[in-house]
Amino acid sequence: MSEHGRHLLALTDRLNGTESHDQAADLVNQILDPVDGILERLADFFEAAGEKAKDSDADDGFDLAHDFEEAAVDIRRLNQDLHLAADRMRALTTPPPEPAPPARATYPANTALPMPPTPADTPGRHR
Predict the structure, then answer these.
(1) Nearest to residue 82, comparing CAs of 25, 44, 17?
(2) Which residues, 6 or more positions from 68, have their beta carbon under 8 angstroms from its beta carbon?
């Protein structure tokens, strides 16, 4: 396996081992970043391969160049279609649960609540 193939395989293994969607989104972004992502660099590679094929005097050079150029366009289209994928992956993160409200004392339905004493009920007080 080539060094680049090993790099992509390692990236896939890291993605499989992530514990959160945020971590996964960071790895997805390495592939899909519109400026420096792997797909953008791959499209650049196919464009360069197309230019190299055009330099050939062979009859198939023009057709091969066209195939490479189409591949570059397809890869860029794919990258554009997935341009929000990292953000969408990050949005899958489950928000932490909200804290439960403080517990309140509850009384059975037919139980009277104790009433505070009134001044007439206070011992030692005369009217």
Answers:
(1) 25
(2) 46, 47, 49, 50, 53
Helices (H), 1-127: 3-16, 21-32, 38-54, 61-81, 85-91
**Are 31 and 39 in contact, with CB atoms under 8 Å apart?**
yes
Sequence-ordered list of residues with C-beta below 8 angstroms from that of 27, at least 6 positions apart, any chain:
11, 14, 15, 18
Q: What is the pTM of this model?
A: 0.69
Residue pLDDT tens, the chain, 127 long: 999 999 999 999 999 999 999 999 999 999 999 999 999 999 999 999 999 999 998 889 999 999 999 999 999 999 999 999 999 999 998 666 777 777 775 656 666 656 666 666 556 655 5
